[in-house]
Amino acid sequence: MISDIHKFLIDNKKTISTCESITAGAISSRLITESGSSRFFKGSIVVYNDDVKSKILGIDINKIRKLSAVSKEISHEMALSAKKIFNSDYCISATGNAGPNNYDEISQTGQVYVTVITPEKAITQEFKLSNNRSKNIENTVDFALSLLSKNLR
User: Fold this and answer.
1) d(Cα 24, Cα 102) in Å, to the nearest integer?
2) pLDDT for 21-68, tens place per residue?
3) How far is Cα 13 from Cα 143, in angstroms, rounded to an integer?
4) Strand runs (DSSP E) across 97-146, as ranges?
């Protein structure tokens, strides 16, 4: 899948960025595993803390507290902000509760949102995972790259 993503981005002269919370840079790490990734990969922002999401990305802290950082809306805003910061054609964001403990009173353990923004549209999907932290992070990376791959045009 990574080879296909690389080929598409390079052949079409498109760029990508990421904004990661639950995955803490693992999506971007996977994106750059093959040579030539500097031709399309602009960068990544890891925003694990809510205050940092607000300060770096400009997301209203009250909105984060009201909806939870683990929400469709915040995932979407994370991707929009990073896409704008990096001026990339595509952007992936991931936010979630990796577990095993609850992040807040709103979200659930294993709840994850991934957003992919393309030049034409934004897609956000929710995934319900387990309470196995390492598996949840690994699965989120796989889901994010799969969602990107399905929406490359």
Assistant:
1) 18
2) 999 999 999 999 999 999 999 999 999 999 999 999 999 999 999 999
3) 24
4) 111-117, 122-128
